[in-house]
Design a protein that fits this description.
The protein is mainly α and 398 residues long. It has helices at residues 12-18, 44-52, 60-79, 82-93, 102-126, 138-157, 164-172, 183-197, 204-213, 217-225, 233-251, 276-282, 286-291, 305-333, 339-366, 371-397, and strands at 257-259, 264-266, 295-297, 300-302. Helix 3 packs across helix 10 and helix 4 (82-93) packs across helix 6 (138-157).
């Protein structure tokens, strides 16, 4: 259609028997160009013809691909049913009953079972051989980390006089103590699901296959569209891709730092509650550059302030989940540790990482949102930490 630039599929048999017909309202016109006769060997064009019901599409080839993936996309969307989302939210915020400890396990086991079914279906489309042994419950662990963090956050923020920093932290988190089912919450669960899917053979190529070959952006966009509040759908999809790349960086971190002054190759000292290494690693990625709208003006490489703030908030939230998970593992290893002491440790570490986040925002502003200048700040922090570590070791040797 020359007017709309959309492609249509019509029946050759119908044209032969009834001629070419178009319905027009008053003052409407249609100009149809570049007719192409296609022999429907396997019946897929006829199937698409009945599916579209006369509607136009940007590309017939793309529409055929989407039609083949429709069962997979429907299964993916079904996993995000309102019933499941309500259960996940309840699981994250409700206090466990002492007499019904098994209720939480049953909830996550059911979700895990549905997710494993989805992964098996994805494997068929990816032509992968799924291992027979039971998969690791990564999704379960991620929900558990969120649960521990949010229950503590809700307990603190609902006190009569919560600390100022915790109120500020709660306000800036994409998914905070309110835990509303909005686009940010849906994006977080999508990230957890996709992280579980790529866990077995995690690499950047697999992420590209999920979004480019399997067109998972389509069902994700549909899921996010179910909520009208929050940031844009496309921005959330871009963030999910970035967070998946971030998880790969964590699994395969840089193991060395070149110190020119000492001419030594030394191990980087990275704090557990530090957001700087994650930012440093991701700032070199093209996908992050695209999200931050990086551009060069008069020889200066700038990045978008608002996009960077969103990007940093999500990384902050994931680091806080990791802190909560690390403390939980410590308690499992040493049962003598009291829950109250674990909570204090999480609060202390959360305050520490929040202060680093505030410092990071300040450095971004002071750099004038110049990417080159700003990238040097995290590098300085890591190198300075390494130097102080080496001096301490020398003193011990003396």
């Amino acid at each position: 259609d020359h007017r709309t630039n959309l492609q249509h599929i019509i029946s050759g048999k119908d044209i032969a028997q009834n001629g070419f017909r178009i319905r027009l309202s008053g003052y409407q016109y249609r100009v149809c160009l570049r007719f192409n006769e296609v022999y429907d060997i396997d019946g897929k064009f006829e199937k698409l013809y009945h599916l579209l019901k006369g509607k136009g599409v940007v590309s017939i080839d793309e529409a055929l691909k989407e039609m083949e993936l429709l069962p997979l996309h429907n299964m993916y969307e079904d996993f995000f049913s309102s019933n499941k989302l309500d259960k996940i939210r309840t699981y994250l915020v409700s206090k466990p009953e002492k007499k019904k400890k098994s209720s939480e396990i049953n909830l996550t086991d059911k979700i895990e079972s549905d997710l494993n079914t989805l992964i098996l279906e994805l494997s068929k489309f990816l032509n992968e051989k799924k291992p027979v042994e039971k998969t690791d419950k990564i999704f379960h662990q991620q929900l558990s980390s969120c649960k521990d963090f949010y229950r503590l956050l809700i307990a603190i923020t609902t006190k009569k006089k919560p600390a100022k920093w915790i109120k500020e932290l709660d306000h800036i988190l994409p998914v905070n103590s309110k835990l509303e089912i909005n686009r940010e919450f849906l994006s977080l669960i999508n990230f957890f699901v996709l992280k579980k899917i790529i866990n077995n053979n995690a690499d950047e190529q697999k992420i590209n296959i999920l979004f480019d070959k399997l067109l998972l952006s389509k069902p994700i966009a549909s899921i996010l569209d179910s909520q009208t509040d929050g940031t844009s759908v496309q921005q959330n999809i871009e963030l999910i891709k970035i967070l998946l790349n971030s998880s790969l960086k964590e699994k395969n971190p840089d193991t060395t730092v070149n110190n020119k002054k000492s001419k030594l190759l030394t191990q980087p000292v990275v704090e557990k509650d530090n957001i700087l290494p994650s930012i440093k690693a991701l700032l070199n990625e093209n996908i992050v550059h695209n999200f931050l709208l990086v551009n060069v003006f008069e020889g200066v490489t700038y990045f978008n302030k608002e996009r960077f703030e969103v990007f940093a908030k999500w990384l902050l939230m994931l680091v806080l989940f990791d802190i909560s998970n690390g403390s939980k593992v410590k308690k499992v290893d040493d049962k003598k540790i009291k829950s109250a002491d674990i909570d204090k440790e999480i609060i202390k570490s959360s305050k520490n990482i929040f202060e680093k986040y505030i410092s990071l925002m300040s450095k971004a502003e002071s750099s004038g949102y110049d990417l080159i200048k700003f990238k040097k700040e995290p590098e300085k922090a890591v190198i300075k930490k390494i130097k102080s570590k080496r001096v301490t070791n020398k003193r011990k040797n003396v």
